[in-house]
From TrEMBL:
EC class of the enzyme, as a word: transferase
Keyword DNA repair attached: no
One Pfam family recorded for the sequence: Sulfotransfer_1
Record's protein name: Sulfotransferase
Length: 313
């Protein structure tokens, strides 16, 4: 694993320094970008590295901040919408004809930390409680700013981590990557080989998942570990679990009114135009893309990586 890059002043990080950094890092063909670079032990597209460095050095969390972390293509859009609706349900009830989710996407409402400029950190305002910001990220636990995780695991805010079946994640990454790289698509076989070697966005995915899993076992009041399949199969149970973790449980009146039922748009909000939440997020969709040998290989790697951890997906 690479040693972390020594801290540098944010004023000194310019395009030339980023180019110099990239030239010093291990480089491979990417699944979702033309190339990917290994930084602090994990792989990232070049456009993400500047933001990662920025937030590691500049971001200051608030005690009530909520972070949604996922590997790319693991239900991020869906859970962003759920989280936003859940946190803001008093100010914006599900029946609100002017609910923000009716006119904006969940990515607009819940930004990725690593895609923000440092000057935008303090201006994020997406909760009715001014002391709470909802932010998202794809980065591993060890790459989050130390201001969030603390030097000894003393988390400054709450983290909700969502992951999905490894095979489904790979297939979703592959299709999304080829949609983005129409002029230079990667073959299924080449993408699969890279993925199995751990060369995927914010991967190795097994290492990222294990990092958050282990922390959730040590620090369950600060890190909530969620599985995409369970969220789809038992939304009522998982939604209550999420609300309880955030300290905003559903009242008996809310439960009796059916508020906890997640509708087909993926949120509590009827009429949301984000119907794509469910469009491709099918559990078991890998069966339409992978051969039996491919599926077996990923299962074997996953079993080896997770052995002894108590984790299953």
């Amino acid at each position: 694993m690479m040693e972390p890059r020594p801290a540098a002043s944010i004023q000194d990080i310019d395009n030339q320094e980023l180019e110099n950094l990239l030239s010093s890092l291990p480089k491979e063909r990417g699944i979702m970008s033309s190339y990917t670079y290994q930084f602090q032990g994990f792989w990232y597209p070049p456009y993400a590295l500047q933001g990662i460095i920025n937030c590691q050095e500049e971001f200051q969390p608030r005690e009530n901040d909520i972070f949604l972390v996922t590997p790319p293509k693991s239900g991020t859009t869906w859970l962003k919408a759920i989280l936003y609706a859940l946190v803001n349900r008093e100010a914006h009830p599900p029946q609100d004809p002017h609910h923000p989710l009716l006119t904006k996407t969940s990515h607009q409402l819940v930004p990725f930390l690593e895609l923000l400029n440092p000057s935008e950190y303090v201006s994020v305002c997406n909760s009715s409680d001014s002391s709470t910001r909802i932010l998202a990220s794809h980065v591993p636990l060890g790459t989050l700013p130390k201001a969030i995780t603390g030097d000894s695991g003393s988390f400054k805010c709450k983290i909700v981590y969502l992951c999905r079946d490894i095979k489904d994640n790979f297939v979703s990454l592959f299709h999304f990557g080829n949609d983005r790289m129409k002029t230079s698509p990667i073959s299924l076989e080449d993408a699969f080989d890279l993925y199995c070697k751990g060369i995927s966005p914010a991967g190795p995915i097994w290492d990222q998942i294990l990092g958050y899993w282990k922390e959730s076992q040590k620090n369950p009041h600060k890190v909530l570990f969620m599985r995409y399949g369970e969220l789809k199969d038992e939304p009522y149970i998982q939604l209550r679990r999420l609300a309880n973790f955030l300290g905003i449980p559903f009242s008996q009146e809310e439960e009796n009114s059916g508020l906890v039922d997640v509708n087909k748009t993926g949120t509590f909000v009827e009429g949301s135009n984000n119907s794509s939440f469910f469009r491709k997020g099918v559990v078991g969709d890998w069966k339409n893309c992978l051969t039996a040998d491919m599926a077996s290989r990923l299962d074997q790697i996953t079993e080896e990586k997770f052995r002894g951890s108590g984790l299953s997906l």
